[in-house]
Each structure stands twice: as structure tokens, then as C-alpha cells.
Amino acid sequence: MKVHIDGEYDEETVRAIITALSHHLGESVSLETDRMDGADDTEAAFDDEGVILTDREERIREDIADIAAGGPERGHDKIEQLGKEFVRDRIDMVFDDVQYEDGSFAGYANDDQTPADGMITGVGTIDGRDAFFTANDYTVKAGSLGQQGIEKAIRLSERAVTARAPIVRLIDSTGARLSPDDRDESSSHAGRYTGGKSFFNQCIHSGQVPQIGVLYGPNIAGSAYTPIFCDFLIMVEEISGMAIASPRIVQEVTGEDIDMQQLGGPDVHATQSGSADLVVPDEETAANKVRTLLSYLPQDYQSPLPEKPGTAPSRNPEGLDAVIPENPNEAYDVHDVLERIVDDGSLFELKPRFAPELVTAFGRIDGRPVGIIANQPDHVSGAIFPDSAEKAADFIWKCDAFGIPLIYLCDTPGFMVGSQVERQGVLQKGRKFIYATSNAQVPKFCVITRKAYGAGIYAMCGPSFEPDSTLALPSAELAVMGPDAAVRAMFSDQIAEIDDPAEREAFIEETKELYRKDIRKQASSMQVDELVAASDLRRQLERRIDAYRDKRRIDRDRHHGTVLF
């Protein structure tokens, strides 16, 4: 959208107006200005005199137009049957402009028709920011990866890191091109400059520049590693999927009869594997999510975070205390807390359907991006399970990689217990959560909203884990375990000996009072940095984030830790 601003304003004011309008409308806004006499015009308006279009230039332009049209008609018919967009329409959804492409003539000499070798690579802009991109063209042999297409993807990733710019991967590939005509008999998937090199690059570039993947088709075997190695993955319902082997291979090897959606469809990866950060209903929504996600991320790990003009929360921060029940066992939705803390419309939750007992989300506080890890008392009381521990560790590590401050909202009874979670690796995955919290060096703020029991406060960046501030609300309670569990553990024999139910319950309630913690006394002994009124929490976080915006990282005297994510 283009706008015209009347009157005389300085550049900073104009920029602020455009940014605020873009945020309000939810779309890119550019300034349309009147051309002033004597203004610098880098592309002078020539008249037709001097225009010479030679035959060779005309042939090149015709070739480029043919390449841009994609694969043969049958390929276009196929994407129409599947309900997919043509790759260039897909690119136009994501980017405001395509600055340039590389490798348009890749595969031009092939006997078969493989425009751009089925892989489009280049640089586009999103809200004025450059982003490098790769995009499979499904009309060209179902988006399969040819030798030149792989080479283009390898070069693109290496150049993106050099340019210190994010990579957006629009993935729609059936995998390596296996037909005999497309492969040299001496080639191998293990060669130095083949598909493996692209995965190697994704690994070593991790944490250098953001890598965002959108999955539009069923990706099998090697091609499934491209989306899974991205920092953030968006899957489109019905048409996308990923698995280490196809349903046919699975049936041949294991005898299991299963279709692609059951094997590795969006629901599987959104609710069970946790591999998908978001599942969206259509391609347009996917494009919008890419643009929104990028608005929280820097160009690279050394670049500043993108800031916007701050806005008030969608709900009044002064109503926060009423949201949190006095009974530590009573459920409530932590989103009601978050809506009173972050800027209006800025909450962007990731993995919302995976391990919902813990919320991971981006948001803004006074216009600045933050990462949020919040226990969800509305689901299994906010206890930490193996999946939620891994979900949190993954999110914390990404925020730390890209310099995004972390806010922990602690209201948990601790890690879940029992034989099932032990078999699922609650200790093994729980250590990842605690390890990530310990090693993250971005500004970290722990807010104890209500219960902080057991090792839950360790994972949630309690006082021992060097947060830059530990804040507690009046509803907070720090303890090894809750009063109910403590009484039943310590007085189980006495309780069992009381026959009268009413007398037994009275004994339990009376004894529980001995184990209740007073957060004022804990604040008195400096177990927390500050006890704040709930209605002041948003303001406190604003000021503390500002105070630590120049926090320095510390070099550890080691190669790396031994806990692998």
C-alpha cells in the first residue's frame, strides 16, 4: 500500500508514521512523494531515442520469459489438481519485491524441459528487509532436486551468511531426481557438493542467520531434512507432510499400512513430534506468518532486533491480579496474563498444539521483541513433561542465538512424576531445559506468578540460574513442594490412622498451614529481587528490558557443552 503525507516532516517523523500505519493495517506501507525539481533520479527517464533491442537481447529475454513460465503444461495441471499455487505466485505472496534471481539458466542444456532446474533462488524484500530465498518449482518434475538445483541452493545459503541476511525456504519437493537420464553414473548422494552439502550448510549456519521454512508438499527421505533443519517450520494443511520414508517404503519394510497424512502430516508434526512450529490452512496464511515471524528476528545474530512503536496491551494490566486465583491448584489460562503484558496484537505463539502445558511465544513489550516461556495452569496444572521440557529448551536456544530477551512466567508444580514420564526421558529432556536456561546469555527475567515448586523453578530461571531479575507477584510461593504434597508425604501414617473423614480432612488442612510459604518473608531474605504488585508487572518489565538492552555475552572457557539439542 502506498500513502502520501502532506506537509513538511523530518525523516524520523515520516518513518514513525509509516511504521505505525503498517503495524495498524497489518501490511507493508510505502511513502509516495512528489518529484521535486533537481531531485536525484538514479534511473533517468529516457525517451525512446537511443533504445536498441538487438536480436540476441530479444532472444535472451524470450528465454527468460519461458523459464519464468515454469515446467510443461502437465506440471501446471498437476499443481491445480493438488490445490497448490504456482511457485512464482507463491514467492509474490511472501515478498514485497524480488530484487534478483540467480541461476535462471541452470539446466538449460538438459535434453528434457527443466526450467531453472526446478529450483528458484534469489533475494527478495519484506518490509524493507532483504531475505534470501530458495523455492522448488513443482511444475518441473514434481519439484525434484537436480544437480544444478542443489548447487543453486548451496550457493544461496553460503551467500546469505556472507550478506548477513535471513533465508526463507519455500519447500515443495519429492526429493532427489532419480531417473537415469538425470543422473551421472558416477554421482552419489554422499558426494562433496551434493544434497548432503546443503544439509551441512544448514547445520553450520544455524544460529548465524534465521532460517524459515514453509512446507507445501510431502517431503520424503533426504528432502525432509531441509524443513527439519530450519529454525522455524510452517506446514500447510492437507498438502504438506514429511517423513524419513514414504508410506510405500514403510509398508514394504515394516508391513505397516499407512497414508502420508497419518505418517507425517501436519497434525502428526504439530501435536506429536513437535517438528512443526505452525500449521496453517492455506498458502496465503503461510506467507503472512513468514512475514510476521521475520518481524521478531534480526538479520543475523549480530544485528539489532527489529523494533516497532510500542502499544498498550490488549487488556488492562491493572486487572492482572484478578486473573490469578488464590488457590494454587485452581486452573486459569496464562494467555489472560500475557494479554496484559505484551503489546496489543504482538503475541505470536509457536508450537501451540504440542505440549500445551507450556507456552512458547514471541511478543513485544514497548515495541521490543521478547521470547516468552510460560507454564500453562489450564493444562495439567502447568506441570513440566518431557515434551514440554524439550519444547522450552529448543525455543530458549533459538532466542539466545538471535539475541532475543527471555521472560519466564513461572506457575508450575514442577516436573511430572511417574513411570510413564521416566520411560519418556523426563530427566534426560528436563536437563535440556535446565541446560538451555543456564547457558542462555540474553537478558533473562523470571516472574513467579504463583507456585514455583521443586525443580520447576530451576528450569524456569529461578534465582540460582542468574536471571537479570527475579520478580514475584503477591500470589507467588516458592517451595520444594506444595503444602498438600508435603503434608501427605510427611504425615501419611498419621492420616491413615484417622478413621473419621471430617477429622482427617481437618487435620490435613490444619497441617498444610505449617507448610505454606509467605512470599513477603521470602522477599525479606532476598530469595527474589523484588516483590511487585501485579498491576505494575508490565511497567517493571519495560524498564528492566531497557536497562539490559546492552548486556554483554561472556566467553566460556571451553569448546562447547555436552548437552546436545
UniProtKB/TrEMBL annotation:
GO terms for molecular function: methylcrotonoyl-CoA carboxylase activity. It comes from Salinadaptatus halalkaliphilus. Pfam families: Carboxyl_trans. Keywords: Coiled coil. InterPro entries: AcCoA_carboxyl_beta, ClpP/crotonase-like_dom_sf, COA_CT_C, COA_CT_N, MCCB/AccD1-like. The keyword Protein biosynthesis does not apply. This is Acyl-CoA carboxylase subunit beta. Residues 53-309 form the CoA carboxyltransferase N-terminal domain. Residues 531-558 form a coiled coil. The keyword Coiled coil applies. Residues 312-547 form the CoA carboxyltransferase C-terminal domain. GO terms for cellular component: methylcrotonoyl-CoA carboxylase complex.
